[in-house]
Specification:
This protein is α+β, with helices and mostly antiparallel strands. Helix content is 23%, strand content 43%.
């Protein structure tokens, strides 16, 4: 039996579809792996007249595994995590899931700050960094005529 050009075209289209599906599956697996082993924590930025306060959520992290780097314009947080979960079902089955990696977060300050006067505290899974502003804002009351 002799194949026609249409048969070959159909075969080639099927091969291309299979290749595209395989590439999509690989992409999904890679993205899943990246999400599983890296995490961008939530943050709050609070600006007062005198300082900038940054709060970063780092649940399950130990204080000694956190690294902070400050400049006048940004804060970089890097934390190592090593999480192990155990689930017991009945008396005999134990499922263990272990994940490790790094959490990274960069926060840009709304105003320039004085990095060497920063004060950092880690409590209940929340990192709180307070940094004085380089230029303090003063407010005065103005009477309306």
């Amino acid at each position: 039996m002799k194949r026609t050009i249409l048969d070959r075209k159909s075969l080639i289209e099927k091969m291309l579809e299979d290749t595209a599906q395989t590439i999509d599956n690989i992409k999904t697996d890679i993205e899943k792996t990246i999400v599983d082993y890296t995490f961008v924590p939530g943050k709050d930025i609070i600006e007062t007249d005198d300082s900038v306060i940054v709060q970063v959520d780092l649940p399950g992290i130990e204080k000694d595994d956190i690294e902070l780097n400050l400049t006048e314009t940004k804060l970089k947080v890097k934390a190592k995590f090593d999480i192990e979960q155990e689930i017991e079902q009945g008396n005999y089955i134990t499922i263990s899931d272990r994940k490790s990696g790094y959490i990274r977060r960069t926060v840009r300050f709304p105003k320039k700050v004085i990095p060497n006067e920063a004060d950092a505290e880690f409590k209940n899974g929340v990192l709180r960094v307070e940094i004085p502003k380089l230029e303090k804002e003063t407010s005065i009351r103005v009477d309306i005529k």
